[in-house]
Amino acid sequence: MNTLILTLNDALFLYYLVSNLLYLFLLIFAVRASVLHQRLLASIRLERFRGSPFSPPVSIIAPAHNEGQSIAQCVRSFLSLDYPAIEVIVVNDGSVDDTLDVLTREFQLLRTDLAYIKEVPCRSVRGLYMSQTEPRLLVVDKEAGGSKADATNAGLNVASSPYVCVLDADSLLEKDALLRVMVPILADPEHVVAAGGIVRAVNGSVVEGGQLRKVRLPQRFIEIVQVVEYLRAFLVGREGWSYFNMLMIISGAFGVFRRDLIREVGGYRPAAIGEDFDLMVRMHRRLRERNAEYRACFVPDPVCWTEVPPDWKSLGKQRSRWQKGMIDTLWPNRNMLFRPRFGRVGFIALPNLWIYEALAPVIELVGLASIGAAAFLRILSSHFLLLFLIFGYAFSTMLSIGGVLLEEITYRRYNDWREVAKLLLCCFAEHFPYHQAHLWWRLRGMWQYARGDVAWGKMTRVGFAGAAGKPTAR
Amino acid sequence: MNPITKLVNLLGPASYVVQAVVASLIGAAILLAFIMGRRAARRRYFGRRDQRAQALRRQLPEILAGRILPEVWRRDPLDDRILEEILLDRLEAASREEAEQIRFCLRISGLLDKRIHQARRRRGWRRLYTLVALGRMRCPEAIPALAEGLDDDNEQTAIAAARGLGRYAMPEAAEPILERLEMKRLRLPANVLQSSLYHCCRDRPSMLLRAMQFTDDQLRPLLARVLAEVASAELGEDLVLIASDPLPEVRASAARALAGARPRLALAALQQLAADSEWFVRLRAVVALGMLQDPRSIPVLLETLCDPNRFVRLRAAGALSRLEGFEEEILVRAVQTRDRYALQALVGEMQRSGAMLAVLNGLADPLRRNRSRRILLAAERAGAPRLLLDTVLHHSNWRVRTQAARLLAESQDPEVLRLLPYYMTDTQPPRERILLVWLERRLREAGAVVRDATHLPPPRAARQPAPSAKQEQPERGIPAPGPALVRDDR
Asked: Of A197, B195, B267, B315, whose CA is between 20 and 30 Å from B454?
């Protein structure tokens, strides 16, 4: 028994060591990729793409479910994007609030007889609306499908451009974000099949008329922690994985995909919980099966601002859902693991997601239990435990700081030094009690998934008007 | 023993935690100090740079006029860099005269020679940046140095050289690219080459036509795509020759080029391409015919309105909807095709292009009312009763609404009677409800009977108009089959 527990403790130590070394490795290559990207940007004049007849049109798909509060602002922000040819498709996914009324009023919508051909599955469409004032806008009114995937599929069915940009209707894109995210596609349209930009937290920032006026860090600890998390996940994680062409997630809040490929894989899986992850895995699968040479890129400078959960409860629901989405995608694709035809995706990227993302809460729980058991049996070396805790703490803090430093060295969105200081302090403080709460939410997500509870749940939103002020739950 | 060390020893294993906390705090302080130091250094550097930039901007007229000698500002490396940046930025938006003045300054100050020298000597990123700067200068004497950059082993450097040449927008800058393409020495992303050639060959598209004779099947479509964008009347009837190229991609580009150049035989060539075996060639031809806006193309466009490929149908509908003044004739002739998919594609595109809205607004204008009524009646018969019903309920002008209701009553269309219950809701304003009730009564008085099947005859079999593929079947319960929205899939 004692040997078993001690072996478990050693295995746990090894698990954390490998995990942290992996992220350190990613951090190093993320820095390299960021520097290369910055250099490349210095040699490109974006305005050349603006006037080029060879810049392919892009259909922007924005699914909206009860977004009456912010939909008009968001659509205006999408329409004002700096790109030569866009078509904005807003999918009203069975909203019970005034989303469609707001759109009708603001953009003078008129119902049309345009045909709708269902190429990818989704719930019934009630009508298509065109704007009398903005010819680039098309609104699809459909029955509630219960998922973003279902609504996005309806948008895909009417999209006409060779590329589709999938957004959240409650997101704000910077004016040149689409142009920037299209840079790798424009540079190599034959191989780049998808590209995603960075998602940042808009909480605390000043938004006026659908445009971000001033970037500010949110006030609450729970929101600042998420800012750190997003920086770490995007600037370190995705940049690093993208460097090795193993990008497994392009955020559903802002991603561009080749339309023909998305349709080829059958669009988004309507029942998927993490539809963005699910789509990317299926795209990798299809392209690897075809033996195609392809790239899915992360581009760090086009920014999509989104509202992150402002309270513990909403955040808990979101993280439980993410965990469910992770398992919901990994499980059906388990046959990709360690199969030579899926190359580095099957041998590195997916096993990493299984071990260090999907199963991480369970492994951590087992680890805690084994430490507790060791303490109970009086075989726990307090020296070892402290070293272990300090090692884990120091390493993960260093990775968070790496994300913040990368931000400071490259993109520097937070101009006030006090905000950077807050971010740094948050890197030290996020381990207690946020990490433990996160562990609990993820375990809850796994439990819910095992029980078949796959509902999305409601998130408390402040709306952009209130993003800088005190939140008011809707 | 030092009291702090004594205290730490007293703590036992807990001292590790204390040490970790202290180390973390020190680490955080160091990081914060680094960030603040870096910020301060950057602030100082940029402050100095902005100050110098402002001073140099104030002196710019004298510098350009040569009253301040280059030796004065070239001595300081910071001034040298700043002024080059200012001159290049200014060149982007300068008038012809001012651009000449700036280029003269670049030449006499030695900045141009310095960059040419660097482009030949430097390697890696530094060469790339030099080529970018040379491209922005647009001085013809730098073309050879940029051309040498095309042969760099580093793809990014070669791309920068190609982009730089593209900035010149001169036929002379296209020559090194075309030469290397003909000799198969240049392998760059298509988009970069297209973009550069597009800018350089605008004044002399015949260069592309000539180069197409010497390039292989891999590169010919690329050149044809550029040609399609820059084709001008200068090419004349030569374009008709590439319309019969064996490669469908080239034929498709030829269609677009024909629309741009509009040679005498364009219409005939496009009519031929509209019957091509490849759907995307037909699609391009239809788009090109739409761009010509020649009423003589109406018969061909009506034929392609019944094309087996839905994208071609939609483009044909789009092209027809843009032919102003022929709406009534087109709709009547479209009804005669007896192809409901074609008809609804046409009506949908007319709505999308705004042509139908203009016609609807004409109902409120006594001078245009009769014409609008005829067109809308034809559209209604084409299977678009919902268009008029939506107008009755949602149009901003009440007069248009009542006219639309009258028109529907006159149509005696049983389909309208079938649809009416879906439009009547309890929350409707009384005026709208009265209008709908009136319409229902008029239709019933006229003896309209609700039918399940569509009132239009089945699609014509001869030209296989109805899409047979499963995915082309419109969803049940959706207003009407017709066009999806298709744009140019360049």
From this structure: B315
Q: Which residue of B has its CA nearest to A154?
A: B475
Pairing between strand A137-142 and A125-131?
Answer: antiparallel
Q: What global pTM score does this model have?
A: 0.80
Task: Tell me, rounded to whole angstroms, the distance of Cα B343 from its chain centroid.
Answer: 28
**CB contact at 8 A, B72 and B56:** no
Interface test with B, best of A38, A88, A111, A113 (most B CBs within 10 A): A113
Instruction: Name the β-bridge partners of B157.
Output: none
Q: Residues for chain A: how many in total?
A: 474
User: Scanning the structure block, which residue is given the tokens 């790496």?
Assistant: A402
A202/A468 Cα distance (integer angstroms): 8
| Surface-to-core class of residue A450, CB atoms within 10 Å of its CB (0-12 exposed, 13-18 middle, 19+ buried) | exposed
What does the domain layout of chain A look like in residue ranges? 1-474
**Mean pLDDT score across all residues of chain A:** 88
Residue of B52 and A416 predicted with greater confidence: B52
Say if domain A1-474 classifies as CATH 3.90.550.10: yes
- A352 pLDDT higher than 90: yes
Which one, of A287, A273, A286, A218, lies nearest residue A471 by Cα? A218
pLDDT at A463: 59
- For B92, other C-beta atoms within 10 Å of its C-beta total 12
- How many of the other CB atoms lie within 10 Å of CB of A350? 25
Are the beta carbons of B351 and A421 separated by less than 8 Å?
Answer: no
Inter-helix orientation angle A360-376/A2-42, to 10°: 140
Q: Minimum mean pLDDT among B161-175, B297-311, B332-346: which range? A: B332-346
Pick from A42, A160, A382: CB nearest B484: A160
> Which residue of chain B is at minimal alpha-carbon distance from A415?
B39
| A135-174 residues touching B, CB cutoff 8 A | 135, 138, 157-162
Fill in the amino acid letter for B202. Answer: R
Q: Which residues of B touch A264 (CB under 8 A)?
A: none
Order of strands across the sheet that contains A172-173: A109-112, A125-131, A137-142, A86-93, A58-64, A163-167, A254-258, A192-201, A295-306, A172-173
Contact B24 A394 (CB under 8 A): yes
If DSSP codes are grouped into helix, strand and coil, which group holds residue A192?
Answer: strand
What pLDDT shows up at residue B450?
52
Place of tokens 């360049």: B490
Would you call A161 exposed, middle or buried from its count of C-beta atoms within 10 A (0-12, 13-18, 19+)?
buried
- The encoded tokens of residue A300 equal 């760090």
User: Which chain B residues touch A130 with a CB distance below 8 Å?
Assistant: 351-352
Whether A114 sits inside 8 A of B348 (CB atoms) is yes
The per-residue pLDDT for range A192-234, each reduced to its tens digit, is: 999 999 999 999 999 887 788 899 999 999 999 999 999 999 9
- Contact check, Cβ <8 Å, B128/A43: yes
Shortest Cα–Cα distance, B473 to chain A (Å): 6
Res B311 pLDDT > 50? yes
